[in-house]
Amino acid sequence: MQVLSALQWRYAVRRFSEERLPAGDIETLVDATRLSASAYGLQPYRLIQVDSREVRKSLLPHAMGQDKILHCSHLLVFAAETDLGEHTVDRYMALLGSARALSQEAHAGMSNHMKTVIAGMTPAQRTGWAREQVFIALGTLLTAAASMGIDSCPMTGFASHGFDQVLGLIEQGLTATAVCALGRRHPDDDHAGLAKVRLAASDFAQVV
Ligand SMILES: Cc1cc2nc3c(=O)[nH]c(=O)nc-3n(C[C@H](O)[C@H](O)[C@H](O)COP(=O)(O)O)c2cc1C
């Protein structure tokens, strides 16, 4: 689909059909999300695919009554890292070193720069920064899904702490930050076909 048609076609689905998406489509979407941009390329988050019906049922009490987490085909939880630090930079530098040739000097310079930036943040700012990166990846996922004609609903209407406990995220240094339900819109979803509500282009974008 052309990008603007895809973005007009997509909407935040409130009611999903029971249709399951092919596994290959989900693999493509996870890979598209993995390729998302992030600040310094640090990717300070993980993507958790919740296939288990039992686990989804355990998440429901923490999802503000949004039972689409049960009915959607696939449920993806974005979990931000809560322990950003020097090890995060070391992990990236190791990947960088194996992907690209880099002089020792350039390597040390980049690494020190990133470590200094992170050291200058409070723990809350570090987690906030990791959470910001999640939303970029969420946007990538939504656009990729729309371009493939796959329906989605981005969600932050859930209690992070409850999701963290059910998914065992706390001990992994992660916290649930955003959720994306994927599947096919139900023929009776009353949000399907509603006109988009957006700022006019002239109010939205400025040229100076
Ligand atoms: C970060 C984020 C969180 C959202 N959380 C929810 C949610 O918890 N439940 C829901 O039904 N829709 C949620 N939405 C969907 C928005 O309400 C929807 O995108 C917005 O009203 C624009 O409509 P459209 O996406 O259908 O064009 C969320 C969207 C975003 C981007």
Helix/strand layout:
Elements: H1 3-9, H2 23-34, E1 45-49, H3 53-59, H4 68-71, E2 74-81, H5 86-99, H6 104-119, H7 123-147, E3 151-155, H8 160-167, E4 174-183, H9 201-204
Antiparallel strand pairs: 1-2, 2-4, 3-4
Helix pairs in contact: 2-7, 5-6
The site of flavin mononucleotide (FMN) has 11 residues, from strand 3.
Q: What small ligands are held by the chains?
A: flavin mononucleotide
CATH C-level class of the domain at 3-83 and 134-192 is Alpha Beta
The CATH topology of the domain at 3-83 and 134-192 is NADH Oxidase
* Terminal Cα span: 32 Å
CATH architecture assignment name of the domain at 3-83 and 134-192: 3-Layer(aba) Sandwich
The overall pLDDT average reads 97
- What about the largest sheet? 4 strands, antiparallel
Order of helices and strands: HHEHHEHHHEHEH
Q: Give the proportion of residues in helices.
A: 40-55%
- Count of beta strands: 4
User: What is the CATH homology-level superfamily of the domain at 3-83 and 134-192?
Assistant: NADH Oxidase
Strand order of the largest sheet: 1-2-4-3
Over all CA atoms, what is the radius of gyration?
A: 19 Å
3D architecture notes:
With 208 residues, this protein is α+β, with helices and mostly antiparallel strands. The protein has a domain at 3-83 and 134-192: 3-Layer(aba) Sandwich (NADH Oxidase), CATH 3.40.109. Helix content is 47%, strand content 13%. It contains nine helices and four strands; from the N terminus they run ααβααβαααβαβα. The chain has a four-stranded antiparallel β-sheet, with helices on both faces. The longest helix is centred in the middle third of the chain and has 25 residues, at 123-147. The mean pLDDT is 97. It binds flavin mononucleotide. Residues 11-12, 14, 66, 153-157, 178, 196 line the site of flavin mononucleotide.
